[in-house]
Structure formats: structure tokens, C-alpha cells
Amino acid sequence: MDNKTVYLNGQYLPLNEAKVSVLDRGFLFGDGIYEVIPSYYGHLFHFQDHLTRLENSLAGIRLANPHTREQWLEILTSLLDASENQYIYLQITRGVAAKRDHAFPETIEPTVFAMCSNIIPFAGRENGVKAVTMDDSRWGFCNIKAITLLGNILHRQEAVDQDCAEAILVKDGMVTEGAASNVFAVIDGILVTPPKGNNILPGITRDVIVEIAAKNNIACREQPITLDALKSAQEIWITSSIREILPVVELDSKAVANGKPGPVFETMDQLFQAYKQSLS
Ligand SMILES: Cc1ncc(COP(=O)(O)O)c(C=O)c1O
Questions:
Q1: Ligand 1: which residue has its CA nearest to atom 3?
Q2: Residue of 39, 155, 199, 201 best suited for mutating to test ligand 1, as the one with most atoms within 8 Å of CB
Q3: Same domain, yes or no, for 40 and 135?
Q4: Is 130 in the active site?
Q5: How remote is the CA of residue 188 from the centroid of ligand 1, in Å?
Q6: pLDDT the model gives residue 96
Q7: How much distance in Å is there from the Cα of 235 to the middle of ligand 1?
Q8: Is 80 exceeded by the pLDDT of residue 19?
Q9: Which residue's CA is minimally distant from atom 4 of ligand 1?
Q10: What per-residue string of b and e applies to 148-170 under the rule 16 or more CB within 10 Å gives b?
Q11: Which one, 38, 209, 225, 236, has the greatest CB density within 10 A?
Q12: What is 52-104 written as a DSSP string?
């Protein structure tokens, strides 16, 4: 086992010494939230935006933020290797209660865990990936980055079982997001992504792409996408902090346009890579 240093409740320790009680509400109920923050050569990407989302997720589950922004920066920076591209996985659960009871205990200390892993460039960026659409069977708080990921896991596994890189989820005929990504499409020459709301996680990569589009006169709208519109889109992308922007070249076993990554993807990917470089 990789025995790297991790952070647990105020201590830095080897991974195999980091232990959490079986009464932790994260283990018993999935009662917690998380963040994934990329770091390019020691520089945390859009750190303040990730902290804002963390605060929103904590507020969404009625859990007080255990640290200030300055403290988070100090805690997480100590885990990074500045010579690598890495990501921080940060998880906060409600903590360890004396007994198993759904309602929140009156006094409880949150469990804070963080670890760092190298980003392995995702195969598939050059030639694109396959995706499959399916009914979004998740809960009503998808805007919270909750550790309770069973719905997402089952959707992703169903995609993997069909030899696809991602499940694109659809609720009431409208595209929501991927099992672990946001979705963009080029429809009638315009870049479109579903609007924020309870049905999707407000992805940081998504926001960065919307900003880059605005700065570079690439027509982009945050508006609902019907499944029919997705099926006839000129381009489809999935986006996330770890996978960045991935072109989908096959949807439900049919080629997207000519089955190759499209020109808007090529432009946006170059702009995205240049933007990353400019910050690190
Ligand atoms: C369900 C879901 N939507 C969207 C995203 C993309 O968010 P971000 O760009 O902040 O990584 C993720 C990332 O893991 C996710 O799990």
C-alpha cells in the first residue's frame, strides 16, 4: 500500500496509521461532504471557489465549518508536492456519535480527513470517449458535494459495464450532468451547459469554461438541454477537475457528428491549458 502522509483531525500521519471509528457518521450514514481540489505544481487551482463550494456543502448539511480559509490553506498546502500535478481529496463528516441515531447528536466533533494524489493524465482526451445516457435516479440535493455517492456510483458502473467512460444523466427529458462530471454540448453552433440548481453539482471546471468562453467571444449559454437536442449535438463534452475537458465522440453507440473531437473542444482545451499554465 502507498504509505503517503495524510491529514486526519489535526495530525499528519502515514496512510496506514490513519484510523476512523466505526461509529463515525460518515461510515454509518454517509453523513458528510467532500471536495476535490486540483493543484498544478503546488498551486491550488481556484482554491477560493472550492472553499466557497465547501462552505455551501457544509451549510447544506447543517455542519459548521471547522476551519477558516487561512487554516484550510495551511492544512492542505502541507500535503502537496510542488514538483507534481496533484489533487487534494478533502472529506468532512459529522463525526463520531456515542450511538447510531439518524438525528444529529447535540455535541459532536467533525472528522476531517485529507489526502493528496498525483493527477494521471486521462487517456481519451485526444480521441474522445464513449458515453451512455440513462435516467438520473439520484436524490434532490445534487448541488451538495455529499459523500453519499451510491446513486453516482451505480450510474458510473452501468456506463463502465457498457464500455463507456461516463453516464450522462437525464431527468424528465432534460440533461442534468455526468455521474462524476458536468456536461456541455455544442448545439446550433452555441456552447450550452445545463443551468445550476439542485439537479447538478456546480462544477468549478464548468465555471472556468463558462468564464473562458465569455472572455474569448465563444457563444455560451447556461440553459436546459433536452435529451433530443443532446442526441443531435455537434459536440458533447464532460468536464471535471480530474478529467478536465473530455470530448464525447460516441453517445448511446452512435457517433457524435463525425465521431472525432470537434473544433470548439480543440479551441476550448487549448484556452483551458493556457489558463492553467498562466496560474501556476
Ligand atoms: C456529480 C458531479 N458533477 C460535476 C463534477 C465536476 O465538478 P468539478 O469541475 O468541480 O470537479 C463532479 C466532480 O467530481 C461530480 O462528481
A1: 181
A2: 201
A3: no
A4: no
A5: 26
A6: 98
A7: 20
A8: yes
A9: 181
A10: bbebbeebbeebeeeebbbbbbb
A11: 236
A12: HHHHHHHHHTT----S-HHHHHHHHHTT--TTSEEEEEEEEE--B-SS--SSP
Tell me which DSSP letter residue 122 carries: P
What's the 207 CA to ligand 1 centre distance in angstroms? 11
Which amino acid appears at position 18 of this protein? A
CB under 8 Å to 67, separation ≥6 — which residues? 75, 112
Dist. CA 100 → ligand 1 center (Å):
30
Enter the C-alpha cell of residue 111.
472528522
Give yes or no: residues 239 and 134 share one domain.
yes
pLDDT tens digits, 20-78: 999 999 999 999 999 999 999 889 999 999 999 999 999 999 999 999 999 999 999 99
Nearest atom (ligand 1) to Cα of 200: 3
Give me the domain span that covers residue 137.
129-279
CB 238, CB 131: distance < 8 Å: yes
Cβ < 6 Å from ligand 1: which residues? 36, 152, 177, 180-182, 201, 203-206, 239-241
For residue 112, what is the domain's CATH number?
3.30.470.10
Confidence of residue 227 (pLDDT cuts 50, 70, 90): very high
How remote is the C-alpha of 239 from its chain's centroid?
8
Nearest 5°: phi and psi at 76? -80, -35
Q: Could you say which of 4, 99, 130, 145 is catalytic?
A: 145
**Is the confidence at residue 2, as pLDDT, over 80?**
no
Q: Which residue's CA is the nearest one to ligand 1's atom 7?
A: 203
**280, 41 in Cβ contact below 8 A?**
yes
pLDDT, tens digit, for every residue of 179-208? 999 999 999 999 999 999 999 999 999 999
